């Protein structure tokens, strides 16, 4: 191993990695941000100087080793630097979901014993001030954006600029101080504390060490041959473990540049401008992109629609094989090449995918049809299986060994086993240290031998690839004894561009049924082209024409299920379209957009009963929370439809 590589390997904390990157590749870009339409970049050397000033400022303001630093806002360079600055001082960064309401933030602030907070703007400052009297440990709120902050004269609210200025003055008198502070850190120190999504109860604070994050990041970088020439886009919540791995840990380990979008509304436009080579998105993002493509093709000319359909059929037939380097006939390869010029290339360019060398998806299962669509275009999208408790990586897919219905093989250094009850269990270098202040939960999740209980049900296929069925607690059986896997059914439904969310029911019932949320943009576009007027989501969702549209989607899912020997008995017999979108602000989804099944069951019990009672309509009244915190009531008569069910022979005949 040469001296440069040895130095990088010896850098066992992020502050040490930053110092090494500044020495080794200091002139290369580390991070970019689009502000007021202009991209601004900082090199690794410049980032080191900014982090050092921030760390010195925090120290002057009283931040001590062991303190927790809350970080709240969109993806901003200064917020990433705040994480490294806290780590250099021996503190624990605690990123929080920027769209959380004040009461949600209060729980994390109290539980994590947060003393200092670095926030993006006035909105986040106001939320923390609202709960500050209930968080006695919280001493200082430090804001980045000064807009709207002129009249905030509280002694415990100050600008990041003032902190940085104080830090720079300190560093001018104390050269080498930052390097000395960073040298105190060790790989076994806690690097970050991330809170779980809380699908079944209170969120837990997952403590991850530098060894956890850096070792798994290094292993994943080597797995996919990432390097300093790659580029990523940092747009997912900083409070989510995925962003901490893909935008932060791997960026520091590989030395590549990450770019922060101007806002959440400009992500797709900024993606096209940057043209990253490395991209991560949860399935919902890829589902949304496919929906947008479908909408645009509906509005295209007949000629373009015909070209698109013909060449997409070619792509779906041979695209994945060409991407994996498998043999394909000369004629098919020629047709695919023509399709790449006329359809695939322009489409990827329009989406910002042209430079993709690698794309990952995880968080929940992606529909195989969606997965195949992108791979058929030549996009090297792969699935991984992970969790916060694993520092993300449990299973990964190798180039040339990608299957749409599995999550790959164990990641480097990870051991996997399936319990007698069918639960997936793992241990490896990323295994979390513990849950903060929750020994009972730690012991119930991680045993003395280091095996972690994932709560997921799965099995290995003949090639040793892991296939996840569902959350173990959610897998059930119909009264007939047929296996019922709700997430598997829901993902099949969400493949259709007209369906944005689905919740399936069936355990302990005579048949499977489902709630469906329509995609307002996709269905609205469809309705407008047919001259169907509507006043909003609820009005559109209750239209008979929309029910006919969704019925066709449900029937197609049932046809697919009929050919699955294990799940053919769990075809959807009855469904309804919900009168409102499921919303995290209403407690129905987590901040990572996962369904809270217990909340759904409690809140919509009457609708669930209606699905199994034989009625064709159910009046409902629901309380909703608006963006400004106000609440209102929605009333509707929700219709219930019967879907077609198939036996295997009928399904094949219907093809």
Name the features.
GMP Synthetase, Chain A, domain 3, 23 helices, Rossmann fold, single chain, 28 strands, five-stranded parallel sheet, 41% helix, alpha/beta, five-stranded mixed sheet, 655 residues, globular
Walkthrough of the structure:
With 655 residues, the protein is α/β, with parallel strands linked by helices. Among the domains are: 3-204, ANL, N-terminal domain (Rossmann fold, 3-Layer(aba) Sandwich); 476-654, GMP Synthetase, Chain A, domain 3. It has a five-stranded parallel beta sheet, sandwiched between helices. Helix 3 (44-60) packs across helix 7 (160-173) and helix 13 crosses helix 15 (368-376). 47% of the residues are buried. The model has no long low-confidence stretch (mean pLDDT 91).
């Amino acid at each position: 191993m040469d001296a440069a590589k040895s130095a990088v390997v010896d850098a066992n904390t992020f502050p040490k990695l930053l110092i090494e990157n500044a020495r080794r590749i200091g002139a290369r870009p580390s991070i970019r941000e689009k502000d007021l339409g202009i991209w601004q970049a900082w090199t690794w050397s410049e980032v080191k100087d900014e982090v050092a000033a921030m760390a010195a400022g925090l120290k002057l303001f009283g931040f001590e080793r062991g303190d927790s630093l809350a970080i709240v806002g969109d993806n901003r360079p200064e917020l990433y630097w705040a994480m490294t600055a806290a780590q250099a001082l021996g503190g624990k960064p605690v990123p929080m979901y920027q769209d959380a309401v004040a009461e949600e933030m209060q729980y994390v602030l109290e539980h994590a014993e947060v003393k200092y907070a670095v926030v993006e703007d006035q909105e986040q400052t106001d939320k923390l001030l609202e709960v500050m009297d209930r968080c006695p440990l919280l001493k200082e709120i430090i804001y980045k954006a000064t807009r709207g902050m002129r009249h905030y004269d509280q002694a415990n609210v100050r600008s990041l600029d003032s902190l940085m200025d104080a830090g720079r003055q300190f560093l001018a008198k104390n050269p080498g101080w930052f390097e000395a502070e960073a040298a105190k850190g060790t790989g076994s120190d806690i690097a970050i504390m991330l809170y779980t999504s809380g699908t079944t109860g209170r969120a837990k604070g997952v403590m991850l060490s530098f060894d956890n994050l850096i070792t798994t990041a290094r292993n994943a970088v080597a797995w996919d041959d990432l390097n300093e020439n790659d580029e990523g886009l940092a747009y997912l919540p900083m409070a989510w473990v995925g962003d901490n791995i893909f935008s932060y840990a791997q960026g520091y380990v590989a030395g590549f540049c990450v770019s922060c979008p101007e806002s959440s509304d400009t992500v797709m436009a900024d993606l096209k401008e940057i043209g990253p080579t490395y991209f991560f998105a949860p399935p919902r993002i890829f589902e949304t992109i496919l929906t947008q493509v479908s909408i645009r093709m509906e509005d295209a000319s007949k000629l373009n629609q015909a070209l698109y359909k013909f060449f997409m059929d070619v792509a779906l037939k041979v695209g994945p094989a060409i991407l994996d380097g498998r043999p394909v006939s000369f004629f098919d390869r020629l047709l695919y090449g023509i399709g790449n010029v006329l359809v695939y290339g322009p489409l990827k360019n329009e989406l910002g995918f042209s430079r993709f060398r690698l794309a990952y998806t995880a968080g929940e299962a992606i529909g195989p049809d969606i997965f195949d669509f992108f791979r058929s275009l030549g996009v090297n999208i792969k699935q991984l299986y992970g969790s916060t408790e694993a520092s993300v990586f449990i299973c990964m897919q190798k180039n040339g060994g990608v299957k749409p219905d599995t999550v790959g093989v164990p990641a480097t250094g990870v051991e996997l086993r399936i319990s007698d009850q069918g639960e997936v269990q793992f241990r490896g270098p990323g295994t979390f240290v513990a849950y903060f202040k929750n020994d009972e939960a730690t012991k119930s999740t991680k045993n003395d031998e280091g095996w972690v209980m994932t709560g997921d049900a799965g099995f290995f296929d003949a090639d040793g690839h892991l296939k996840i069925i569902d959350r173990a607690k959610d897998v059930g059986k119909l009264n007939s004894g047929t296996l019922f896997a709700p997430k598997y059914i829901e993902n099949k439904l969400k493949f259709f561009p007209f369906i944005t969310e689905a919740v399936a029911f069936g355990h302990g019932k005579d048949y499977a049924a489902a709630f469906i949320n329509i995609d307002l943009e996709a269905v609205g576009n469809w309705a407008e082209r047919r001259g169907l007027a509507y006043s909003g989501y609820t009005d559109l969702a209750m239209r008979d024409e929309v029910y006919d549209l969704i019925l066709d989607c449900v029937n197609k899912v049932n046809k697919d299920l009929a050919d699955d020997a294990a799940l053919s008995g769990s075809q959807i017999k009855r469904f309804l379209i919900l009168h409102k979108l499921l919303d995290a602000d209403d407690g129905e989804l987590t901040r990572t957009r996962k369904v809270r099944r217990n909340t759904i069951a409690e809140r919509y019990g009457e609708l669930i009963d209606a699905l199994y009672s034989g009625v064709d309509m159910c009046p409902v009244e629901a309380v909703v929370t608006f963006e400004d915190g106000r609440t209102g009531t929605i009333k509707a008569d929700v219709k219930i439809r019967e879907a077609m069910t198939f036996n295997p022979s009928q399904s094949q005949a219907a093809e």
